[in-house]
Amino acid sequence: MFVTASGTAVGKTFVAAAFARALTAAGKSVAVVKPVISGFAWETAADSDTAVLLKSIGREPTRDAIVAASPWRFEAPLAPDMAARREGRSLDFDALVRFCRDAQRGDGDLLLIEGVGGVMVTLDDRHTVLDWIAALSEPAPDPAPALIVVGSYLGAISHALTAVAAVEARGITIAGVVVDESEASTVPLADTVATLKRFLPGLPLATVRRDADAEAVLTALKPVLGA
Ligand SMILES: Nc1ncnc2c1ncn2[C@@H]1O[C@H](COP(=O)(O)OP(=O)(O)O)[C@@H](O)[C@H]1O
Ligand SMILES: [Mg+2]
Question: N or C, which terminus of the chain has less Cβ within 10 Å?
Answer without folding.
Answer: C
